[in-house]
Amino acid sequence: MRAAAQHRMVHVAAGVLLGGVLLWAGVAKAMHPDDLTPAISALGPVFAERAVGLACVLAAIEILIGLGVLGLKQRAIWGTGAALLLGAYTLYLGWLLTLPDAPRCGCLGIRLGRTPVQEHWAGILRNLGLIACAAIVIGSAADAERVGARAVAA
Fold first, then answer.
1. What's the predicted TM-score (pTM) here?
2. What is the residue-level pLDDT of the chain in tens, covering all 154 positions?
3. Pairwise CA distance, residues 133 & 63, whole Å
4. Domain residue spans in the chain?
5. Residue whose C-alpha is closest to residue 88's, from 96, 77, 76, 99
6. How does 77-103 read in b/e, with b if 16+ C-beta sit within 10 Å?
7. Cβ distance 128 to 50 under 8 Å?
8. Sign of CA dihedral 127, 128, 129, 131
């Protein structure tokens, strides 16, 4: 019984951490979309013209997924969405590292390093940890569905 309670606490903590960080990041982007525009503008002039709007769209997506992860229904879907979003962000940060003059990303609305390169590496490591949290959320949702199916069958 004690192991099951600890297992459940890890699942809850992973969901709260993942949902909370996405919510925080979305709100930070919504409040300060200009912090993200240099990283979006690195994609080229077409994106640079729409950088603020794209930052706002990303903010809305992060807030929606964060709230979904924190919710009690369809957590596997929201966890999968979070993992995909964070995976895309991680690849993008890796791409920014290849640029000769990498811009800051404005990730989470805070600077995670003294230089953009340090910030991008910190973001990559953070995102990998959050992807692990998403995997836990997805796994806990699948466990809950199996338990529910057994209860209905019994």
1. 0.86
2. 587 778 788 888 999 999 999 999 999 999 999 888 999 999 999 999 999 999 999 999 999 999 999 987 888 999 999 999 999 999 999 999 999 988 888 776 666 667 888 888 989 999 999 999 999 999 987 665 555 545 444 4
3. 17
4. 2-153
5. 96
6. ebbbbbbebbeebbebbeebeeeeebb
7. no
8. positive
- Terminal CA-CA length for the chain: 21
109: left (phi over 0), alpha (psi -120 to 50) or beta: left
Query: What is the rounded CA–CA span in Å between residue 128 and residue 90?
Result: 8
CA quadruple 46, 105, 71, 1: dihedral sign = positive
Question: In Å, how far from its chain's centre is CA 29?
Answer: 13
Cα angle for residues 53, 54, 59 (degrees, 5° grid) = 100
Residue 57 tokens read as 């769209």
Spatial separation of the C-alpha atoms in residues 30 and 36, rounded to whole Å? 10
Count CB atoms within 10 A of the CB of residue 137: 26
Helices 116-153 and 75-97 pack at an angle, to 10 degrees, of 160
Distance CA 60, CA 65 (A): 9
Residue from 83, 91, 87 nearest 137 by CA: 83
